Please model this.
Amino acid sequence: MSYHFSKSTSLPFDDAIAHVTEALKKEGFGVLTEIDVTATLKRKLDVDFRKYRILGACNPAFAYRALQTEDKVGTMLPCNVIVQERADGKVEVSAVDPVASMRAIENRELGTIAEEVRGKLRNVIASL
Model:
């Protein structure tokens, strides 16, 4: 089983980020964190790296339900979505599969929540 689902787009990098952010919003997610991996690697290691951004997405209602079910599930939150530029010039967007990551926790109720979140994240990726 894969731990992510992905889709390539011909949108320019910044437009892909804007599109994904808006699609996440439509599914009830907000972006809590945004990590510019390219800039961080340049600043910390003085290396050049392709455009690569990590969006830490959170749906508060699902996060609350998950935290009520399993108090340490916060170690696996938020749901990360990455936007990266590929060698062929296309942009790829990938989202974590919450069902795959929640399998590490033996909690049936949490698995049900993860299934619901998975559906919303799949909708985001499919919207590209």
Summary: Strands lie at 4-9, 30-36, 52-58, 79-85, 91-96. Residues 44 and 82 are 20 Å apart (CA to CA). The first helix runs from residue 13 to 26. The mean pLDDT is 96.
